[in-house]
Amino acid sequence: MKTRYPIRAVILDWAGTTVDHGCLAPVIVLQEIFALRGVPLERQEARHQMGLLKKDQIRAICSLPRVAAAWASRHGAPPAESDVQALFESFIPRQLNILEHHSGVIEGVVEFLAECRRRGIRIGSTTGYTREMLDVVMRRAAREGYTPEASVTPDEVGGGRPAPWMVFRNAALLDVYPLAHCVKIGDTPSDIAEGRNAGMWTIGLTSCGNEVGLSAAEYQALSFGERAARTLEAEQTLQRGRPDYLAERLADCLPLLDDIALRIEESR
């Protein structure tokens, strides 16, 4: 008799993992709101601590030495918590306005998830977006064939990554346990930390996510050598978070799930 596939669930990130190749939508708006306050951000500064709740990410960006110094030069003092709150309030409507345009499902995601479901794996999701923002993303994703069975946002559980609270809520909604039989997949160090803190297996994604930071068309336009160099740099960044595995895209993860399943079986 065939035994049940030992992986109970995969918990997926959104931008840069399942939608929005290169995680572009937050970067566009973060650069815009800081520029409006007279402190333009470099693209990599706008990607700093991507994956956190957006208010937490804004706070982290404000703490970058160059940004804090530039803010103090423009406004007479480093950014305070009131500035973080004002930036976040400015971020929300602007992000909502462009999310629909930047939430296309990444190639291979729908097929990957169909195979997961065939194996009996439940599908959950976590994000750095608020519920209001994620609802916009989910509407377009659903039209393109991707609908997870559960989705949880930081504002629904009292905090975001790297804390595991969103993962725990997914597990309850999906009725899956133990979490050692579940896999967290995402494109940022905070995704990996979230999964590790929940006691899950973790897979970090490189070419489609925040660390490479290019749209699918931009990535395909690179030479083979340029792609390899950008992907290697992303791998090095993600490796510092000690993921169990790395892959370029979600579509490349099925063999990794099989390896995890084998390791789970061997540990019984």
Question: Can you offer a commentary on this structure?
Answer:
By secondary structure, the chain is α/β, with parallel strands linked by helices. It is about 50% helix and about 10% strand. It has 13 helices and five strands. Helix 1 (about 25-35) crosses helix 5, helix 3 (about 55-60) crosses helix 5 (about 80-100) and helix 5 packs parallel to helix 7 (about 130-145). The chain is globular and about 65 Å long. The two termini are about 20 Å apart. The model has no long low-confidence stretch (mean pLDDT about 95).
Strand order of the largest sheet: 2-1-3-4-5
Uncertain residue segments:
none
Count of DSSP helices? 13
Report the sheet-strand fraction. 5-15%
Q: What radius of gyration results from the CA coordinates? A: 18 Å
Mean pLDDT: 96
State the distance separating the first and last CA atoms.
18 Å
Q: What can be said about the biggest beta sheet?
A: 5 strands, parallel
Run of helices and strands: EHHHHHHEHHHEHEHHEH
Please specify the SSE layout and strand pairing.
Blueprint: E1 9-12, H1 24-36, H2 43-46, H3 54-62, H4 65-75, H5 81-99, H6 109-118, E2 122-125, H7 131-143, H8 154-157, H9 165-174, E3 182-186, H10 189-197, E4 201-205, H11 216-221, H12 224-239, E5 245-247, H13 254-267
Parallel strand pairs: 1-2, 1-3, 3-4, 4-5
Helix pairs in contact: 1-5, 3-5, 5-7
